[in-house]
Amino acid sequence: MARTRFRRPKRRSASRGRLLDWWLLWRVPLLALIVMAVWWFAFRPLLHERGWVKVDERFVICGAGESAPGCVVDGDTVVIGFGAERRRIRLTGFDAPELDGACASESQLALTARDRLLDWLEQGTFEWNGDVSPPRDQYGRELRSARRVLPDGSREYLAQTMISGGLASESGWGSVPQDWCA
């Protein structure tokens, strides 16, 4: 009967062992970082573009005597639909002055903002976010951001148009309320 010889495993050098230990220790966080980076740069932009709905309704000033599927209430609110299908929509990203403002200058600026919003909406098809179930504010209005895709592929956001025209102030966290009477 032949005698079986057992070999002793070769010993690794200390530096190679430390390198292997380092790799075992850091491979899970490194793999998680790689997965997060791929999601951030590849999939997040695609998800961000979902939920935008094309709108090509005709708009008029609410209460002006004309009938249209949509009407502009003030500088940041529109209504779409008739009867039970009627929906009030608060356009987000900006805050326009109120029609029943604290002073005459605020009320006048509110009329100008309302007219500018109507002009922007009449320029053609635009998109707003929120898909079929947008969030709502304390008054039950749908909250939506509006934008228009221009022929060159760039995007024009309604909020930036209103703010840059001096007809609205920024809204959201960290924004300072505008005193339209000052």
Molecular structure report:
There is one protein chain. This protein folds into two domains: 14-48, no CATH class; 53-170, OB fold (Dihydrolipoamide Acetyltransferase, E2P) (Beta Barrel). It starts with 13 loop residues before the first helix and ends in a 12-residue tail after the last strand. 18% of the residues are buried. The protein has helices at 14-49, 104-122, 158-164; strands spanning 53-55, 59-61, 70-74, 77-80, 87-91, 94-95, 126-128, 142-144, 146-149, 155-157, 169-170. It has 182 residues and is α+β, with helices and mostly antiparallel strands.
Given the C-alpha coordinates, what overall shape results? elongated
**Main sheet strand line-up:** 2-3-4-5-8
Quote the CATH topology of the largest domain: OB fold (Dihydrolipoamide Acetyltransferase, E2P)
Span between N and C termini?
107 Å
Number of domains: 2
Any idea what the radius of gyration is? 29 Å
Mean of all residue-level pLDDT scores: 83
> Could you tell me the number of beta strands?
11
Helix content: 25-40%
Largest sheet: 5 strands, mixed
Helix count? 3
Under CATH at level 1, the class of the largest domain stands as: Mainly Beta
Secondary-structure-based class equals: alpha+beta
In terms of DSSP E residues, the strand content is 15-25%
- Are there runs of 5+ residues with pLDDT below 50, and where? none
What is the second-level CATH architecture of the largest domain?
Answer: Beta Barrel
The SSE order reads: HEEEEEEHEEEEHE
